[in-house]
Specification:
It is built from 14 helices and 22 strands. By secondary structure, the chain is α/β, with parallel strands linked by helices.
């Protein structure tokens, strides 16, 4: 059985399993520090005792092992679109206070529903939702291109700080070539269309596009990316599917870059126009990846291309040809490892034969030769009825089953999640009922942090824990592990600035005592320290 067949068979088995029962209601209640988790996971065999230390009236023995008792890694993100005020702000020209309150509501939603990342659009049309000397303030923010918020604040800085407070990574989402959107208001003198007219071309639908083949276009867009990387404490940079524009934007006519291509031919260029266009996009993607890594290796670079590479790949798939129409060779970028995470927009349903979600996911995984993160984008905007809720849950579970080494899903977009209460509830009561860590990226850094120095005592029937590490600035999270008598392992994910925590020492009507505890430290790239388990002797 080849890899794609095996992956599809796995997906089909999972689909049948999950659709045979209700997915919107969990079989157990979400665990808290007072409840015993009900997961049927058996902890691994423990190595022999290494040392013994006394607790307060509680002798303990310490055992060591490398891996913690559970795999709790999964990327859970949502796109927040600012173009056309799709998600934020709800309309242009809101006051600073209104913008910030809307932002906090969205971030609070993600935190309370156990997401761990947000993909926030900061450059929808060669503009900026942050303080920039390279591009003007966005129309979608203030209602006038080039106008700063009043009272002044930096939205990106605000989003980053508030996201990090809530344990969320923040990835900046940029459109590298779009210069003006049809909903983007009046083109002002601050626009690149006016400042560098030789770079921009107008399309039939009223959009403007920067010519990707011009060196100055590439230099400018790269400078915008690196300006953000250098000045802001971001966790990732993200591009979507807009490279050369969709042909429908120009009424089916070819992209108007005749002058640029003619100059290339006159300089003895040998590539066809299509290969020449793809070559410029390929070089730009590789350049962005390399420049980010040279400056801040921990900043991840992600791409969310159109979900189909070419019709016929895999065989049963038909649809739009991004390779031929957008001049985006997304398969090459994945094959070469020019990204840290790859998020194809698989916005189709599981049983949609010509664009089947699991079949496309399996094909992309077969092309993931560098073992980068493959976190598909899914469409949660199909409505809030039971059928569409089940579709969302099943796609998440299929992704987990097919990609167990690095689970993850990106939701398009946050709007339907907030709008449809039953969908949001199904997530937090189902696959997202517990928090998760962002999976590590070992090709960037596989050096785990040190094991925290740990102490505890029992006080008023609670277990009080304290810990420290020698270099706390490198720690982004801690995980408290605990286990009650006759129960299974449970955990709490805490912020990296927390150095103490308490748990109830006895729970339930049967007075189950705390039996085992431990702690691991997690660095910014998701590397988790060795697990030191403390067995509480009776």
């Amino acid at each position: 059985m080849n890899k794609i067949t095996h992956l599809f068979a796995t997906a089909l088995f999972l689909l049948l399993s999950f659709t045979a029962c209700k997915t919107t209601k969990p079989t157990t209640e979400p665990s808290t520090q007072e409840n015993v988790v009900k997961d049927t996971i058996v902890s691994a065999e423990k190595p022999e005792v290494k040392e013994e230390i006394p607790g307060e009236d509680n002798p303990v023995s310490i055992k060591e092992k490398i891996n913690p008792p559970l795999n709790i890694e999964e990327f859970r993100a949502a796109w927040i679109a600012t173009v056309a005020n799709i998600n934020w702000p709800s309309k242009s020209g809101l006051s600073t206070y209104q913008q910030q309150q809307e932002a906090l509501k969205l971030l609070d939603f993600l935190k309370s529903h156990n997401f761990n990342a947000v993909i926030f659009q900061v450059r929808p049309q060669a503009d900026a939702l942050y303080q920039s000397e390279l591009e003007p303030w966005s129309y979608f923010l203030t209602g006038e291109q080039g106008k700063a918020p009043d009272p002044y604040y930096d939205p990106l800085d605000f989003w980053i700080k508030e996201a990090h407070k809530r344990g969320l990574e923040l990835h900046v989402w940029l459109n590298p070539y779009r210069a003006h959107h049809t909903t983007g208001g009046k083109v002002t003198s601050t626009s690149i269309i006016r400042k560098k007219p030789e770079l921009a071309v107008e399309l039939a639908n009223g959009m403007w596009w920067l010519d990707p083949a011009q060196k100055e276009t590439q230099d400018h867009s790269a400078a915008v990316v690196m300006d953000i990387v250098n000045r802001y404490d971001i966790d990732g940079v993200h591009f979507d599917d807009y490279f050369y524009p969709y042909d429908s934007y120009n009424n089916g006519k070819d992209f108007p870059d005749e002058k640029t291509f003619m100059a290339y031919q006159n300089a003895d260029g040998k590539l066809s126009k299509a290969d020449w266009r793809r070559d410029h996009v390929n070089k730009f993607i590789k350049r962005i990846y390399e420049e980010i890594k040279a400056e801040k290796p921990f900043v991840k670079f992600g791409l969310s291309p159109f979900g189909i590479w070419r019709p016929g790949y895999p065989e049963s798939v038909s649809g739009y040809d991004q390779y031929d129409k957008l001049y985006a060779d997304a398969k090459l970028w994945l094959n070469e490892g020019w990204i840290d995470y790859f998020t194809p927009q698989l916005y189709w349903q599981i049983n949609q034969y010509a664009q089947s979600f699991p079949e496309l996911l399996g094909w992309w995984e077969s092309e993931n030769t560098k073992n980068r993160h493959l976190w598909p984008g899914i469409n949660v905007g199909l409505g809030g009825d039971e059928k569409n809720v089940d579709e969302t849950i099943n796609q998440i579970m299929i992704t987990r089953g097919m990609l167990p080494e690095s689970k993850g899903t990106v939701h398009w977009s946050i709007g339907p999640l907030v709008k449809h209460e039953n969908l949001a509830r199904a997530l937090v009561e189902g696959p997202y009922r517990k928090k998760a860590l962002v999976p590590p990226s070992p090709w960037l850094d596989d050096s785990a942090p040190e094991v925290p120095e740990f102490s505890f005592k029992v006080e008023n029937d609670r277990l009080l824990m304290n810990w420290e590490v020698s270099d706390p600035k490198d720690i982004s999270r801690y995980v408290i592990w605990f286990k009650y008598e006759q129960g299974n392992w449970d955990y709490k994910i805490l912020d990296g600035n927390v150095t103490s925590f308490s748990l109830q020492n006895v729970v339930g009507e049967k007075k189950k005592m705390m039996e085992r505890i431990g702690i691991t430290a997690v660095d910014r790239l998701g590397n988790q320290s060795d697990f030191k388990e403390i067995i509480l002797k009776k």
